[in-house]
Amino acid sequence: MGGGNPLVCAPITLPTPSGAGSAIDGPAPAYDWQGDWQSCEVLFVSKLHGSQLYGVLFAPKNIDLARDKLPVVVIAPGSATGVQSQYQWSARDLAGHGYLALTVDPQGVGRSEAVAPPQTADNYIDAVVSALDYLLSAENPLRANVDAARMGAAGHSLSARVVSFLQGEDTRLQAIVAWDNLSSTVEGDAGISSGGGTCGAVIGGEVPLGSRPARQRVPAMGQASDAPGGCTQDTDPEVKKTGYNTWRNAGISSMQIVVQGKAHADWAQSLVADASSESPKSKELQLFQHYTRAWFDLWLKQDPRAIAALTASQVFENTLQTIYSVDFRSALFLPNAGIDCPDILSGGCPAFAP
């Protein structure tokens, strides 16, 4: 694609912990719907550990290095076998549609240097904080293109809980998306598939650190799997809205999407995923990204058209009846737009009318 400038990052030498540079953290297939993007590998210092963290920086293919000031999103992986490359599907699409994005491996994960036990919430919090620090540092080759007033974060599983918590602590964040699921605490609650009670010690081998409630500060979206919640396997139709309700009750805009037929691992894209843009995996990720990007468009770009994307009665070939779970309720709270919909599928929310 013509115009713009190529992204040039300094050459890096990967750290050498066990598994460093292994194929598990190589890029998964890209898809046509992600637009025109470019990327390069980066290393930066962990604020908590002082170790080298590995990330991939994404930018629009046609970026104007002299003029563009762009919103930025940091993306962190799920725990256990999760690595940053499994979430490049979102970073590519964001970069292909006018964002800068940075995917990051916490220390001891993927290609990042290992100096401490990796499976703790604090370790994953550090990855997001350190990534934000890097984006605002002179080491970032695109520092001049970062709009520091428009920064967001997304994460899956443990990292979903982390961004739910961190948005209340790090004032640089202005919006978040939590993939399975938005949580009222960093440990997890009844609506979370990866935590809550003893789940933090069971799923992903995480080290439980005790409950730390999230302080609801910025607009937050939760995307959830269509399965009973938490360790208790709770089947209450309201359970997936546990985190969402804390945002709504605080008067902060939020959206809860429970995606019909989806499992906890579906937000991760494997290296051997079908490379066809028409494949079921591609279409699944495209649906997740439709709502992810619309949320960031609304809050980081202040684009009012995003509300129509969030409330569309059909997304690609999917209708509301095939997008949203019939067992667990999805909801949307946008007080400034006059939207307070406790059950999207109920038919009682004018915003979602065809």
Structural summary, described in words:
- The chain is of the alpha/beta class.
- It contains eight helices and twelve strands.
- The protein has helices spanning 88-95, 121-135, 158-166, 199-202, 242-249, 280-300, 305-310, 320-323; strands at residues 37-45, 52-60, 70-76, 100-104, 146-156, 173-179, 220-224, 254-258, 314-315, 318-319, 331-334, 339-341.
- The strands form two sheets. A ten-stranded mixed β-sheet has the order 1-2-4-3-5-6-7-8-11-12, with helices on both faces. A two-stranded antiparallel sheet has the order 9-10.
- Strand 9 and strand 10 (318-319) form a beta hairpin.
- Helix 1 crosses helix 6 (280-300).
- The radius of gyration is 19 Å and the shape is globular.
- 53% of the residues are buried.
- Residues 18-22 and 201-205 have low confidence and may be disordered.
Distance between the ends = 37 Å
Main β-sheet description: 10 strands, mixed
Structural class: alpha/beta
Lateral arrangement of strands in the main beta sheet: 1-2-4-3-5-6-7-8-11-12
H and E order:
EEEHEHEHEHEHEHHEEHEE
Q: What's the Cα radius of gyration?
A: 19 Å
Indicate the percent of residues in helices.
10-25%
Count, helices: 8
Gross geometry = globular
Mean pLDDT: 91
Give the strand tally: 12
- Give the uncertain stretches in residue-range form: 18-22, 201-205
**Assembly context of the chains:** single chain
Strand residue content: 15-25%
